[in-house]
Write a structure and sequence with these properties.
heterodimer, A: mainly alpha, MetI-like fold, two-stranded antiparallel ribbon, 2 strands, flat, B: 246 residues, two-stranded antiparallel sheet, 10 helices
């Protein structure tokens, strides 16, 4: 049989294509290692470049970088601290607003919905400005003066969009529970509060965890915004270090160092989110 | 009429909405609005193109291309956009040559607005790659196999079978990401691009009307996002295939 004489694809010998996922992005294990390797190569290359192009009199690029790294890391830790506090505040407020969003009382539901939509659709930076400029720098409660430093205002400013997003996550989580659960609870004579706390929320909770973690990663990255409103964070310190050294060839390695810190912190969170999503088998 | 009303509001109530009656402030604000819209539109288009290109490369047979796309996506997804923008504007820009600006001076090859567009496109593009990937993976493999068995090449398969279905699946997520992109454009303020937030801050530092401008600004952004949501909603509706739901 002369196979080569035909031009019908079905009659040609079958050659199995290399086994890859439709998009090629599905194999997650290699991902982190590959990206970190890319990062390291980029970082090393930029450092070497800085070393080569540096003026002969100056210190070596690596020495300068090592000198500033602890300070930049401190600034980065401050970012993390801010992210913890805003997330805590935003989550508490957001859960309450989110539960209000599925309330049976129409005005409560509509107000919560409106608040959520408004703060979700406003830019983070604008909300941060809002909090920084419009909150007083001190409170006078019964003759007692409570100072309200800038970083607390920044936490509130970042917590506003977080709360709105958490509210939406909570609403989505509650809505994703099949209505049969509500009905069976009702038939078992649970009242609404009991149904919510004992039946719906425990089930919805695990569905809310992955998007909540995702939001936390987004918030961590957004904490650099506080440098725009004049609070010392990792980015401010990086800039200050560059100004102090006034060596333009150090710019790329220095910024890459800061990027690397954020990457090292956010990437594991992203991975954990994905694996949790897969375990709970929730569609994103 | 409107101008007169807001002027009266300023005199009687002390609410200084200068953008509505002061021609100079209004001009600045509108210029800012124009710049923001310009950045948004160009970055949206570029990020969509990047997303498509990325997902195409990620599915190719070349191992190098796949690793590059993975690295790109993970890098831009897991680092702060503000630091990315600073990195591009302050660090990468110093490597590029300057060009003559025609007046005897030297100006950088890429302006602040240009870097903002580049940084935001790359940032949103990384998310788009992931979104398109999710959409493509959600297309049933039997559909793809059916196309393959009909002798479609990979490109034909993408154009005629996979992408039309995947696009409808990922529209809601895409919607979210593009809204996010519009909100991210405020970061251009940090590198001095005269966009909406920058214009507003100039106005409030000169007219001392922080509270009023802040509210105008918030409402403007919410309206901008609402326009995008409306357009995307209409698009989603016209693209819907009757009887096909995801």
């Amino acid at each position: 049989m002369r196979v080569s004489a035909t031009d019908l694809p079905v009659l040609l010998p079958y050659r199995a294509p290399a086994a890859i996922a439709p998009s090629g992005l599905a194999a997650p294990m290699l991902l982190g290692g590959g990206t970190l390797a890319c990062f390291a190569i980029l970082f090393g290359a930029s450092l070497a470049l800085a070393q080569v192009t540096a003026r002969p009199a100056g210190e070596s690029a690596a020495t300068v970088l090592l000198r500033w790294a602890p300070l930049i890391f401190q600034g980065f830790l401050f970012n993390i601290l801010i992210s913890f506090l805003s997330m805590a505040l935003g989550t508490v407020v957001g859960v309450l607003v989110g539960i209000a969003q599925v309330s049976v009382v129409a005005p409560v539901r509509r107000t919560a919905w409106g608040l959520t939509q408004f703060f979700r659709n406003a830019p983070w930076l604008v909300l941060l400005f809002y909090a920084m400029f419009l909150l007083p720098f001190e409170f006078n409660v019964l003759g007692l003066t409570i100072a309200f430093p800038a970083w607390i205002k920044a936490i509130i400013g970042l917590a506003l969009p977080v709360a709105a997003n958490v509210s939406e996550i909570v609403r989505g989580g509650i809505r994703s529970i099949p209505s049969g659960q509500w009905e069976s609870a009702e038939s078992l004579a649970f009242n609404r509060r009991q149904t919510m706390w004992m039946i719906i929320l425990p089930q919805a909770f695990k569905r809310m965890i992955p998007p909540w973690m995702n939001l936390y990663a987004i918030l961590t990255m957004a904490t650099t915004l506080i440098s725009v409103v004049g609070i010392q964070d990792g980015l401010t310190i990086t800039r200050a270090a560059l100004v102090a050294e006034s060596r333009p060839e150090l710019m790329i390695p220095m910024y890459l160092l800061l990027l690397l810190m954020f990457f090292a912190y956010c990437y594991p969170i992203a991975r954990a989110t994905l694996s949790l999503e897969r375990r709970f088998n929730v569609k994103a | 009429m409107i101008a007169a009303y807001f002027e009266r509001l300023n005199e009687t109530q002390g609410l200084n909405f200068s953008v509505f009656y002061d021609a100079f402030d209004q001009g600045r604000f509108l210029t800012g609005l124009w710049t923001t819209s310009y950045i948004c539109v160009v970055a949206i288009i570029a990020s969509l193109a990047l997303g498509l290109l990325g997902v195409w490369l990620a599915g190719s047979n070349s191992r190098l291309a796949r690793i590059l796309v993975r690295g790109y996506v993970q890098f831009f997804r897991n680092t702060p956009p503000l630091v990315q923008l600073s990195f591009f504007y302050f660090a990468v820009a110093t490597l590029l040559p300057t060009v003559s600006d025609g007046f005897g001076g030297r100006s950088p090859l890429v302006s602040g607005t240009g870097w903002a567009i580049i940084a935001f496109s790359l940032f949103a593009g990384a998310f788009n790659v992931e979104i398109f990937r999710a959409g493509i993976e959600a297309v049933p493999s039997t559909t793809v196999e059916a196309g393959e068995s009909l002798g479609y090449t990979r490109l034909q398969l993408y154009i005629h079978v996979v992408l039309p279905l995947a696009f409808r699946i990922c529209l809601p997520a895409l919607n979210n990401n593009l809204i996010n992109l519009v909100k991210t454009t405020t970061l251009a303020y940090a590198i001095g691009v005269p966009e909406l937030l920058y214009a507003a801050s100039q106005i409030w530092s000169e007219s001392f009307n922080v509270r009023e401008m802040m509210n105008v600004l918030l409402v403007t952004y919410v309206l901008l996002v609402a326009v995008l949501v409306f357009v995307m909603g209409r698009w989603e509706k016209t693209m819907r295939i009757p009887g096909y739901s995801t």
